[in-house]
């Protein structure tokens, strides 16, 4: 969980955050679209659930890249912590225990 994904090691934290924000936006758009289709009776609940699962995979992958990213310096550590806190506040979500542990390793730098 502490290694970056192959070529992702060269990608900056800022670029990862931009990708995550784009993935969150795409997920939100897809949820809205699928909600409209479901409300109109255009799709079944099973199709709806499967579609939502697919769109959330991109967001999760982008978020995990940030969680697993090892900051290069103090500025990047603070940026990562701030971003993750903002993400959790905005989504009212929570991280899994292992994700929280990876984020908290930043505090030890």
Question: Please, could you describe this protein's structure?
Answer:
With 109 residues, the protein is an all-alpha fold. It has one domain. Helices cover 71% and strands 0% of the residues. It has 4 helices and no strands. The longest helix has 27 residues. The protein is elongated, with a radius of gyration of 16 Å. The protein starts with 12 loop residues before the first helix and ends in a 5-residue tail after the last helix. 11% of the residues are buried. The N terminus is likely disordered.
Give the helix/strand layout.
Elements: H1 13-39, H2 45-68, H3 74-91, H4 97-104
Helix pairs in contact: 1-2
Number of strands: 0
What does the overall shape look like?
elongated
Total helical segments: 4
Report the average pLDDT across residues.
Answer: 85
Biggest sheet record: none
Q: What class would the helix/strand composition place it in?
A: mainly alpha
Structurally, how many domains make up the residues? Answer: 1
Keywords: Plasmid
Question: Summed up, what is this model?
Answer:
71% of the residues lie in helices and 0% in strands.
Keywords summarizing the entry:
single chain; 109 residues; mainly alpha; 0% strand; disordered N terminus; plasmid
């Amino acid at each position: 969980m502490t290694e970056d994904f192959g070529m992702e090691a060269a990608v900056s934290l800022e670029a990862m955050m931009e990708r995550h924000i784009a993935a969150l936006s795409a997920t939100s758009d897809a949820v809205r679209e699928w909600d409209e289709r479901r409300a109109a009776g255009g799709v079944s609940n099973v199709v709806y659930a499967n579609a939502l699962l697919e769109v959330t995979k991109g967001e999760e992958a982008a978020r995990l890249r940030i969680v697993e990213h090892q900051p290069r310096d103090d500025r990047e550590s603070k940026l990562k912590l701030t971003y993750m806190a903002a993400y959790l506040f905005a989504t009212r979500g929570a991280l899994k225990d292992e994700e929280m542990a990876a984020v908290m390793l930043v505090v030890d730098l």
